[in-house]
Amino acid sequence: MTIKNDSFGRFDFVGKAWLFGGISLFLTIASLIYLAVNGINYGIDFKGGTEIQVKFAQAVTIEDLRKSIDDLKLGEVGVQSFGEGNEYIVRFQGRTGKTDKETNEILNADLTQIRGVITTKFASAEPDIRRVDTVGPQVGAELKRNGLLAVFYCLLVILIYVALRFDYKFAPGAVLCLFHDAVITLAVFVAVGKEVNVAILAAIMTLIGFSLNDTIVVFDRIREIEGHHHEKGFGFVINRSINEMLVRTLITSGTTFISAICLYVFADGTVEDIAFAMCVGIFFGTYSSIYVAAPLVLLMEKLNLKKARA
Amino acid sequence: MEGLRWRSILAALGVAAAIVWVLPNVINFGEKAWWPSKQKLNYGLDIQGGLHLVMGVDVDGVVSESTNRLITSMKADMQKENVAFKDVKSANPNLGELTIDVNDAAGKAAVEKFLSEKYSTVLQVMNSTDTSITTRYFDAYLNDYKNRVIQQAIETIRNRIDEFGVAEPSISQQGSNRILIQLPGMADAEKAKQLINTTAKLDFMIVSNEKSQQELQAMIADAEKAGNYNMTTMKYSDYVTKLNADLAAKLPEKSVIYFEKSANATTMEAGAIPFLLKTDTDLGGNALDDAFVGYDQYGAPQVSLHFNSAGATKFADLTGNNVNRQMAIVLDKVVKSAPSIRDRIAGGQAVITLGGGRDRNGMMDEAKMISTALRAGALPASLEQLEERRVGPTLGADAIDKAKLGSYVGAAIIVIFMLVYYRAMGVVASVALGVNILSLFALMTSMGFTLTLPGIAGIALTVGFAVDANVLINERIKEELRLGHGITVAVKEGYHRAMSAIIDANVTTAATAVVLLYFGTGPVRGFAVTLLIGIVTSMFANVFVSKVIVDLLVHKFKVKKLAV
């Protein structure tokens, strides 16, 4: 790919800014509406409850397991088959007591009962309880609060850094872009029926860092060549910067995507979910740093000029 | 190229140090090997399996109870000293607040005098009316008290977990009223939970001198031999129960054998000292109000005990009847200390002086340990289980194998791509990637960080992302070459001009990682840690080491063309 000195490069990104801006706006709003209507399927990390992962050496049907646990009458219990063979995840929220303390006690008592059923009733199938997670209501609420705070502070830190290191006209573009990526990724994640827990939140936060990284590299180039091509207008500068960084953006996103997809294919459990979130996020993050972030800077610049003229 | 020699040496040293730290993870050098580093990488509970518990400590409950006890003993004291008052009550016992109602101005003056004589270090007067005085604990005292409650709960839990011989238990305070317990590789998690959840039991027992140490040791050895068991093969509590059952016929009436851990032994099994104790004292935790570290007139640490009124009478009788004998302080069947009784102690206040001839720190530690044990029995904080995560060993092993495989495949594809796309510079980038991963594990190992499952995801992503710096540099070199610069200039400018983008990119990723580290818990922090370390090592490998390699090629070996 050769770039002649007087052209902005192969692709006219800025010219199609309205088209892609519209698509992004639509996707973001659609995601927000979807999340608002459908709700986020929180894992037990956030809503409290218990998850038991059990593997049987002999065949046990999901119906048998579900029925035995339903017989305990502990409220709604979900049983889901997991991996291959006779492995299941039993999930339950536990009934709510009058106080958090009571809920906690009920949760712990229920857990003991279910373990009892699994180890005695299915003793002949040689159960191996591989994982138990119980999160009480207090801790769940706290994890949720900390999670939201983390996202907030993360965006704040980024906003300040970009504003200081570059120019304040870059900052809103970067942050809106990150918001766009995070919301769409979350919506896709929820749409495929996965649960949002602490690790996923961490993945989405990292994604924010990753997506910003892509955006920053383009911004860095804009800042570098801004002075050289002043006469051709800001749109030209942006187009040229994106074009010049396009190969780098695609290669880096590509290699990170390869890592993520390999993890997704081979690993399971938490790692699989993190990798899934990363795959989706890298895709939208790359798209947004090419099509969304820089044009937003152009918009800011135009607003600026208008204000200066008025 | 300025300082190339030194930079080469530095890069080589860095890589060598990384190898030194990483190798013990792969090769088992044994304890006495010449290899300088023996540290191994810590695996999180989600990988090695184990039990992770978060217990809530009812600190307010303990403060309330302490306030109520204070009210009772204050009433008794005022009656004894003929201070007239109407009533002592508390509206907010969990703040240590109490109100003393009095009849008239004279009564008020008397109560104020009484308070300033007896409680000047503990209570501050908040406000007073003609008929009442409201006081509360000093803030510093209250905070210190709350802190001691947590510490004693931690101490109690630690004692119990010691029973299981868990390799590396980690028990730590989390926030102001939580305790995080991590027991790697716990097979008997249910039993551990039960033990942690039971309340501490404190007993004062008189040491019987009917059998000598030698006789006791011999009896125990016989019983162990006959029953074919010993302390290392059983849990302490079960062992003690069995031993006493076996020896019941040989021991004097109403006595039991409990053990003390000798001062410098690491575990009970390594240094257990048997004590023959009389069971007929009936003086337990409910007799005690509080215990704390105090100082004698020479400033040496000692343990001060306050008994409540019922306890004071019993304690006076007990000490009076057993002058010159030892009284054992027993917490959960473990003898914590066995001070000698010098005199009858009346009035409900006693001190335990520590044996001299040791350094002050040692005495201080012992005083703290004894007072913590006493308080744990006297005012046991109730614990509430808030979170439990348990991972079986097989699951963690499966998970890490699969995650590793995914990482290897990903890394292999990336290396192939870099070689094909960038050719010579792709080789440099791949070498840098290798150095990056090596230094990442070296740093994780040497700094004692814990590798968790999300941490592995973090490493895999670092691998994917690590090439970014090299991609930026290589693309820049390509641009410079296109502009017609020679290889020397292109390399110099490529590295130089890519730096600002590399730094910006890394700072923003680091910022999110730091936020994650601050707000995250457990495995998520592991994820953040690996991301952060990944940034540091990628700067070393992909910028510094790769530059050294390229400079060596261009300047030392005079390579004229580098395929990019």
Produce the secondary structure layout.
The complex is a heterodimer of chains A (310) and B (564).
Chain A: H1 17-38, H2 44-47, E1 49-56, H3 62-70, E2 77-81, E3 87-92, H4 100-121, E4 127-135, H5 137-165, H6 171-191, H7 198-225, H8 234-266, H9 270-291, H10 293-309
Antiparallel strand pairs in A: 1-3, 1-4, 2-3
Helix pairs in contact in A: 1-6, 5-6, 5-7, 6-7, 6-9, 6-10, 7-8, 7-9, 8-9, 8-10
Chain B: H1 4-26, E1 42-43, H2 45-48, E2 50-57, H3 59-80, E3 87-89, E4 97-101, H4 105-118, E5 123-128, E6 132-137, H5 139-162, E7 170-174, E8 178-184, H6 189-197, E9 202-206, H7 213-227, H8 236-247, E10 255-261, E11 272-278, E12 283-284, E13 288-295, E14 301-307, H9 309-321, E15 327-331, E16 334-337, E17 349-353, H10 360-378, E18 383-391, H11 393-422, H12 424-446, E19 450-451, H13 453-482, H14 487-519, H15 522-556
Parallel strand pairs in B: 1-19, 10-16
Antiparallel strand pairs in B: 2-8, 2-18, 3-4, 4-6, 5-6, 7-8, 9-12, 9-15, 10-11, 13-14, 14-17, 15-16
Helix pairs in contact in B: 1-12, 1-15, 3-5, 5-10, 11-12, 11-13, 12-13, 12-15, 13-14, 13-15, 14-15
In short:
Chain A is of the alpha+beta class and 310 residues long.
